[in-house]
Amino acid sequence: MTTTKLDVKLFIQTCSVEEISELYDSLKARRGILDNAAHFKFSPGDQIKFDAGRRGIIHGTIESFGRGGRVNVKSTNGMRWKVAGSLLVKTGDPNPPPPPVVTEDEF
Asked: What is the CATH code of the structural domain delimited by 5-92?
């Protein structure tokens, strides 16, 4: 049996203060792991996007990696952002590899 989001929400409603504190610490640790994983998914120069809430979707380029899983991004309008790695989505490669050359022998 798989656990659904509804199951988790119902569980949280029945938790004590101590259990909620433990749950919060576990979620915070998991978020840190996901943020730090960005170092393996992205490289400086990668084109990315992220949702900046009321400011909308921001497109930009990764400049470097900061502490705590933060990624330094320069947006297309020149603004610099420090974004959690888990919020980034790769949009394209600025230097894509050339398409493969297909010869008649390969048909």
From this structure: 2.30.30.140
